[in-house]
Amino acid sequence: MSKLNIIPVFVPHYGCPNDCIFCNQRKITNQNYIKDFEETRKSIEEYLNYFSNKDNETQIAFYGGSFTGLPMDVMKEFLSIGKSFIDQGVVNSLRLSTRPDYIDENILNILKSYGVSTIELGVQSLVDEVLITNQRNHLSDVVYSSSKLIKEFGFKLGLQQMLGLYKSDFKKDLYTTEEFVKIAPEFVRVYPTLVIKDSFLEKLYLDGKYKPYSLNETIELCKDIFCRFYKNGIDVIRIGLQPTDNITLGKDVVAGPFHPSIRQLTIQELYKDAMEEVLKNFSKQDIDVCVNNKELNYLVGNKGSNKKYIIEKYDIKNFKVHGTKDDKITIQSNKDMLELDIDKFLKSYRGLIR
Ligand code: SF4
C-alpha cells in the first residue's frame, strides 16, 4: 500500500442532536463557523509545508464529528475548502467519518463531487439491543444499507466498532466483528469503551450499573478480533483512542481500558502466543531468533516483555533476537532450526469464543 500523508481536520460537533450514553460531546454548542473555516484552511496549509515526502498521496481527513450531519451549508463550505486544495494539485482526496444514519444518495453525490474518496462509519455495534440501550437512535439495518450504498458509489469504506458498551459482552462484540467481516469494509478501527466524564455512562458506572472491560480482558478480546479481520484481509488501522491532553486517565477518562498502544499490545501478545507454540518443546536451550526488522517490536514486546516471559517460563539461558530484512521468522535452538509461520498462526488463531 502506498504511504499516505494525512491532514487531520477536527470538525467540532456543533451541538450534536443525539444523546449516545458514552459521549459527552452533545453539550458543545455555539461554534463560530467562520472562525473554524479560516482555521481549517490555515492548518491545512501548515500541514502541507510540514510533510517531508511530497510524493506520497495526500488526503484531508475530516474527523471528530458526524460530518454529514452538519448543516448542509457548513458541510459544503468545509468540503469546498478541501476541494480547493485538490484543484491546486497539492491534495489527492478527502476522507471523513460520520454516522450510518446520515448517509443517503443525495449526500453521497455531494461528497463525490467534492473529491471525497473514503467514508468511515461510526457503527459501534450491530446488536440492536446494544444500539438501543446506548441511545444511538438507529438500528443495525441502517448500517447494512449505508455500507452497501457507500460501496456501490465506489467509496472506500471503513467501519468503527466499540467494545464493551453498556449491555454488551464478548459474545456480542464478536458477533459485531463477524458481521463487519460480512460487510467487508477496507479497514476498521476498534475502540474499547471508556467512561468519559459528564457522560450518562459515567453515572451508570458510579451507580455500579456499568463495569468496563479491564485492559487484560480488552487485549484478549482484541487478539480474537484482530485475527478475524486479518484472516479476511481487513486492515485494523487503529485499536484504542488516540491520547490527547484530555483523553487520558485522571482527565476526561474516568475509567476503562485506557492505554496509548493497545494495538501494539494486542499484536505482541499474538507473537508471544505464536512463539510459545514453537518454544514449548525447547526448554533449557539456547535460542536464536531471526525476524524482520518491521516485526521486531512485536516479537520482543514492549520493553522486552515477551523476551523476558519466554526466558523465565522456558528457563532459556541465551535468547538472542536478530533483526533481518527477510520475511521469515526462524528459530534456531541447540537441536533444530524451525520456521515460525506467523501468517498461518494469525489465520488459524482460535480465540475466546467460537
Ligand atoms: S457519539 Fe453520539 S452523541 Fe456523541 S457526537 Fe457522536 S452521535 Fe453525537
Strand order of the largest sheet: 1-2-3-4-5-6-8
Parts with pLDDT < 50 across at least 5 consecutive residues: none
Termini gap: 32 Å
Q: What is the number of helices?
A: 12
Write down the secondary-structure element order: EHEHEHEHHEHEEHHEEHEHHEEEH
Biggest pleated sheet: 7 strands, parallel
Number of strands: 13
**Which ligands appear in the coordinates?**
iron/sulfur cluster
Which outline best applies?
Answer: globular
Gyration radius, in Å = 22 Å
- Give the mean pLDDT: 92
In terms of DSSP E residues, the strand content is: 15-25%
Helical/strand content category: alpha/beta
Helix amount, in percent?
Answer: 25-40%
Overview of the molecule:
The chain is α/β, with parallel strands linked by helices. Helix content is 39%, strand content 21%. The strands form three sheets. It has a seven-stranded parallel beta sheet, with helices on one face. It has a four-stranded mixed beta sheet with strand order 11-10-12-13. Helix 6 (170-183) links the parallel strand 5 and strand 6 (187-192). Helix 1 (33-50) packs parallel to helix 2, helix 6 (170-183) runs parallel beside helix 8 and helix 8 (215-231) packs across helix 9 (262-279). The model has no long low-confidence stretch (mean pLDDT 92). Bound molecules: iron/sulfur cluster. Residues 13, 16, 18-20, 23, 25-26, 66, 99 line the site of iron/sulfur cluster.
